[in-house]
Amino acid sequence: MQSVLRLRTAVRLGRNLTRGRQQALSSQISATGQGARRLPVIIGTAVGLCAGGLLYEYNRRKCSSVTYAATTENHQNSVISLTKEHALYLWIHVKGTADPKACAKVAANVQKYVDGIIPPKEADENDEIWAGVAFGPSFYARCGGTVHENYDYPHRSGKNGDLPSTGGDIFVHAKSNSRGGLYELAQAVLKNLPEGSVENVEEVYGFVYKNGRDLSGFIDGTENPADDESRTEVAINKETGGSYLITQRWIHKFNVINNTKVSTMENWVGRNIDDSTEQRRKSVTSHVARMTNGSQFNAAKPYQIVRQSQPYGLSSKESGLFFIAYAASPKNFEYMLGRMVGEGRDNLSDDIMLLTKCVTGTYWYAPSLSELAKLK
Q1: Measuring CA to CA, how many Å separate 37 from each of 21, 25, 124, 161, 375?
Q2: What is the distance between the alpha carbons of residues 299 and 308, in angstroms, rounded to a whole number?
Q3: Tens digits of residue pLDDT in 21-42
Q4: Are 330 and 336 in contact (CB under 8 A)?
Q5: Is 350 a catalytic residue?
Q6: Marked catalytic residue, from 169, 220, 228, 350
Q7: At what angle do helices 2-32 and 110-117 cross, to 10 degrees?
Q8: What does pTM read for this prediction?
Q9: What is the signed CA dihedral for 93, 118, 247, 259, rounded to 10 degrees?
Q10: Where are the alpha helices (DSSP H) in 39-89?
C-alpha cells in the first residue's frame, strides 16, 4: 500500500511540476521572446501492454522518489504527454475572408482558456487539462508561420478504400479525466474566435474503452514509444521544437466486425485480439506487415510515431477511432499511409481497411512554445 501511495504522489507531483515548468517557460517566452532552455521533466511513468490490456507502469526502482531527466521542454503539453480518460479533437475550418492572424492569436492562447477553466494551483490529476493547438499548412503560412518540411496531405486511394484529404485550419487537441472541462475548453475557443470567422467545426470527444482497446476489440497502440525520452525523440522536430501531426476519423464497419470470425480479423490485423501478441506467421497485407518492412516476425520499423488515438462516437450513431499521432517529420506518416493503400512496388493494401472506413484526414503542425508565442 505504501508503494502505491508513493507512486500516486510521485505521479501527481511530476504532473504538477511539469505543468508548472511548461507555464513558466511559456510566460518567459512571451515576455522575452527567448527560445527553449534546459528543463527537468518527470520520468518513471510509462504506458505498457500485457494480457490484461493497457497498463500504467512505473519504474519500481524509482518509486520512492521523483527522478528527473534534462530535456528541452519547448513543446506543447499535448504532444508527448500520455492519454487520459477523455480527449477533445476540435477540427476547425476558417472562412477565406477571416483574418488568419486574429484567429491564430485566439488559438495560440489555448493555455489561457485552460487556466480559466481550472486554475493551475487547483488542478490535480482528476481535472487537469493538457492542451495544444496545431495549424494546417495553408493557414499557418497565411499567419506568417514557417516550417522546414512540406506537410500537404494528398488524397490516397487503394483496393480496400480511400484516405480522403479534407483539410483544416486550426486543430485543438486536449486531454483530461474530466469531459466537462474539455467541453468548456471547446466553448471558450469557439466563443473567442472572431465573429463570423468559422466555416465549419467538427467537435469530437474520445474516451478510454476497456483499458485501452479499440471498439473492434483489439488493443490500440501496442508499439507506441513508452517513456518521455523515446516519445520526445520520435515526436519533436530537433530544428524547431514543434511537431507534425496527423488526424483521421475512422468509422468502424460493425456489420463486418460482428459477423467475421475472430481468427480472420486477427489475420487482417496481424495480432491476437486477447493480448495483442504479434503473429509469427502473418499475411503481407496484414496491418502489422504493412506498417513494417514485411511479414517477418518482429520486422524492423522504418518509422515511428507517437499515437494519441481514442475511440469516439455513439452506439446509436456512427462510431470508431479518432486516429491522431505526432512525429518529428511528416515523412513518418507518408511511409505508413503509402503502405496502407499500396503505393510503391507491391501495390498491396492494408487489410485493416476491411474493418473500418476513413472519412476525414489531414496533416497539421503544432508549433513549439517559442513559435506559438509569436502568434499571440
Answers
A1: 11, 8, 26, 45, 20
A2: 23
A3: 444 444 444 444 443 333 332 2
A4: no
A5: no
A6: 220
A7: 130
A8: 0.82
A9: -120
A10: 77-80
